[in-house]
């Protein structure tokens, strides 16, 4: 009888590594996106910038979420890692069961071509100006050697830009261009769409149309959608908004329909596995909380109090 692998004393190094990876993967279970203690350090001219410092994120298949945060908080760094363009310094990043740290170059190319689709803020980065909308959508299918058929027209129709099929990119409005960009991103049936400030260059009405198109893609095709944005209007239209601060997930706002059909939004602080949470800076400032706080366990909550003043002479 074969010995049980994890009891045998003479495991090879690669078996031990595989074992360690299996244990780590327990966080987030088989969620569609799992970032566990993700770290990204940039080194430029001897200076280190810690862009992500132990970020945790779990996104289920078919979710549509917004990622918000101040400039420099690490949103684009996260998106670049999830898109397979950048590799984290440490931690775990898994999308659709694929490990983004240990992926081979060949798998990375396949991942970028057919597992994930992206939409950037600048339309010039999404579309080729000398092709018309249909040709732009067909291009990724051609590169992947896929049959084209009616898919390009169907996607353009679904996103409300069917009438733009024969037009070149400069002959369309900014909102139409971004909706065509969504069709391009969907061309190879990706499981995940990543959008970096997709409405950043648009007015609020046009932004609404682009956002509706992302929602349609999410609902009709079941594709998971992650949108990085500064736009508070966008984050009001998703079920879950994840806030990033200083390279870590710090808050989550969940939206649900109330009993009267009204939208109820509740903001939560994110608690990590060892019990750390970030208090909102304005709460800390309001009560002059610095360095240390007092905690008190009550029957149904934990109280957080400013540290006591130095003991007075009275006692
Ligand atoms: N290639 C790089 N080299 C060095 N530092 C970088 C690099 N890219 C990002 N950074 C730094 O990492 C931190 C996070 O940057 P990131 O672009 O992810 O933030 P962001 O939240 O997307 O900001 P914004 O909303 O302004 O786009 C910042 O301090 C930034 O200066």
UniProtKB/TrEMBL annotation:
<dbReference type="InterPro" id="IPR003439">
    <property type="entry name" value="ABC_transporter-like_ATP-bd"/>
</dbReference>
<dbReference type="Pfam" id="PF00005">
    <property type="entry name" value="ABC_tran"/>
</dbReference>
<protein>
    <submittedName>
        <fullName>ABC-type lipoprotein export system, ATPase component</fullName>
    </submittedName>
</protein>
<dbReference type="GO" id="GO:0005524">
    <property type="term" value="F:ATP binding"/>
</dbReference>
<dbReference type="InterPro" id="IPR017871">
    <property type="entry name" value="ABC_transporter-like_CS"/>
</dbReference>
<keyword id="KW-0449">Lipoprotein</keyword>
<dbReference type="InterPro" id="IPR017911">
    <property type="entry name" value="MacB-like_ATP-bd"/>
</dbReference>
<dbReference type="GO" id="GO:0005886">
    <property type="term" value="C:plasma membrane"/>
</dbReference>
<dbReference type="InterPro" id="IPR003593">
    <property type="entry name" value="AAA+_ATPase"/>
</dbReference>
<dbReference type="InterPro" id="IPR027417">
    <property type="entry name" value="P-loop_NTPase"/>
</dbReference>
<keyword id="KW-0067">ATP-binding</keyword>
<dbReference type="InterPro" id="IPR015854">
    <property type="entry name" value="ABC_transpr_LolD-like"/>
</dbReference>
<keyword id="KW-0813">Transport</keyword>
<dbReference type="GO" id="GO:0022857">
    <property type="term" value="F:transmembrane transporter activity"/>
</dbReference>
<dbReference type="GO" id="GO:0016887">
    <property type="term" value="F:ATP hydrolysis activity"/>
</dbReference>
<keyword id="KW-0547">Nucleotide-binding</keyword>
<feature type="domain" description="ABC transporter">
    <location>
        <begin position="33"/>
        <end position="271"/>
    </location>
</feature>
């Amino acid at each position: 009888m074969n010995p049980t692998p994890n009891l045998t004393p003479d495991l090879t190094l690669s078996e031990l590594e595989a074992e360690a990876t299996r244990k780590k993967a327990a966080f987030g279970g088989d969620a569609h996106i799992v970032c566990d203690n993700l770290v990204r350090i940039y080194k430029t001219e001897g200076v280190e910038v810690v862009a992500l410092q132990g970020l945790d994120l779990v996104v289920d298949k078919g979710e549509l979420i917004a990622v918000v945060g101040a400039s420099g908080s690490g949103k684009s760094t996260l998106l670049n890692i999830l898109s397979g363009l950048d590799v984290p310094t440490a931690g775990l990043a898994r999308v659709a069961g694929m490990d983004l740290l240990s992926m081979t170059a060949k798998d990375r190319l396949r991942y970028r071509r057919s597992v994930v689709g992206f939409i950037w803020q600048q339309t010039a980065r999404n579309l080729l100006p000398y092709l018309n909308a249909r040709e732009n959508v067909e291009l990724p299918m051609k590169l992947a050697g896929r049959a084209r058929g009616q898919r390009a027209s169907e996607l353009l129709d679904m996103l409300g830009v069917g009438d733009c099929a024969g037009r070149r990119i400069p002959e369309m409005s900014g909102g139409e261009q971004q909706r065509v960009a969504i069709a391009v991103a969907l061309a190879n049936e990706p499981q995940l769409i990543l959008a970096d400030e997709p409405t950043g260059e648009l007015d609020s009405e046009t932004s609404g149309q682009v956002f509706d198109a992302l929602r349609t893609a999410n609902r009709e095709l079941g594709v998971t959608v992650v949108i990085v944005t500064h736009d508070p209007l966008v984050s009001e239209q998703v079920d879950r908004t994840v806030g990033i601060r200083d390279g870590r997930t710090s808050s989550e706002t969940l939206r649900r329909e109330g009993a009267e059909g009204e939208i109820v939004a509740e903001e939560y602080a994110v608690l990590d596995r060892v019990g750390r949470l970030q208090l909102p800076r304005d709460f800390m400032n309001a009560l002059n909380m610095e360095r240390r706080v007092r905690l008190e366990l009550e029957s149904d909550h934990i109280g957080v109090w400013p540290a006591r003043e130095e003991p007075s002479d009275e006692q």
